[in-house]
Amino acid sequence: DSGVTQTPKHLITATGQRVTLRCSPRSGDLSVYWYQQSLDQGLQFLIQYYNGEERAKGNILERFSAQQFPDLHSELNLSSLELGDSALYFCASSLEESPGEKLFFGSGTQLSVL
Amino acid sequence: AQSVAQPEDQVNVAEGNPLTVKCTYSVSGNPYLFWYVQYPNRGLQFLLKYITGDNLVKGSYGFEAEFNKSQTSFHLKKPSALVSDSALYFCAVRAVWGGDYKLSFGAGTTVTVRA
């Protein structure tokens, strides 16, 4: 168990809808990362937060947004969903934001857009 | 921009044989290099990392990796593979200074160890 909790584990929704994925980092970790894993795109970095502030942005669509709250949990909001958004979404955390730190990954949220 | 290449989609080995998973990288300046493993229906787990120092890095579950700066490679190795090593392996790179701050992953290599 990595100590990173993601909810829900599975999410089935329809095109055009909006969903929120939640991540609780390991106790004490200040940095949260979101990744999208799909068969055709592989593991894509979406966004990183550190202690409530956005630190780095990757291939995140404008329809997607995220935030990190004062209690350090994070939410990834996906709106106007398309079939191509179906993927496994991972959250990861680390104690600090040093580039040498290892990340601890949650088990992911499997999103299916029908 | 930084990138990682894992040239083999799949690696198949017999139990007890040596296992090698290849990785090459491209990054501005010096790299931080990582290997992660993903078992079915699980998140990624950290195996090992190279930051500086000895080019041979030892990690979890008997795995090791060798950093080769001239060849920009960071191959993962295990002297004697186990059936339980069957999983998806990811190489990742992060710039030490400048460039992209994000951790970039390769496409992954599926390792199958047959009994």
Spans where pLDDT lies below 50 across 5 or more residues of chain B:
none
Number of strands of chain A: 11
What is the radius of gyration of chain B computed over CA atoms, rounded to a whole number of angstroms? 14 Å
> What is the average per-residue confidence, as pLDDT of chain A, rounded to a whole number?
94
The fraction of residues assigned to DSSP E strands of chain A is over 45%
Outline of chain B: globular
Short description:
The complex is a heterodimer of chains A (114) and B (115). Chain A is mainly beta.
Textual characterization of the structure:
The complex is a heterodimer of chains A (114) and B (115). Chain A has no helices and eleven strands. The radius of gyration of chain A is 13 Å and the shape is globular. Chain A has 114 residues and is mainly β. Chain B has 115 residues and is mainly beta. In chain B, the strands form three sheets. In chain B, strands 2, 5, 6, 10, 11 and 12 form a six-stranded mixed sheet that branches. In chain B, strands 3-9-8-7 form a four-stranded antiparallel sheet, with no helix packed on it. In chain B, a hairpin with a 5-residue loop joins strand 5 (31-38) and strand 6 (44-50). The mean pLDDT of chain B is 92. The A-B interface holds A 2, 4, 33, 35, 42-43, 45, 48, 55-56, 58, 90, 92, 99-100, 102-108 and B 32, 34, 36, 41-46, 49, 51, 90, 94-96, 100-108.
List keywords for this structure.
heterodimer, A: 114 residues, mainly beta, seven-stranded mixed beta sheet, four-stranded antiparallel beta sheet, B: 115 residues, six-stranded mixed beta sheet, globular
Question: What order do the helices and strands come in, and which of them pair?
Answer:
The complex is a heterodimer of chains A (114) and B (115).
Chain A: E1 5-7, E2 10-13, E3 19-24, E4 31-38, E5 42-50, E6 53-57, E7 64-68, E8 74-78, E9 87-94, E10 104-105, E11 109-113
Chain B: E1 3-5, E2 10-14, E3 19-21, E4 24-26, E5 31-38, E6 44-50, E7 56-58, E8 64-68, E9 73-78, E10 87-95, E11 104-105, E12 109-114
Parallel strand pairs in B: 2-12
Antiparallel strand pairs in B: 1-4, 3-9, 5-6, 5-10, 7-8, 8-9, 10-11, 10-12
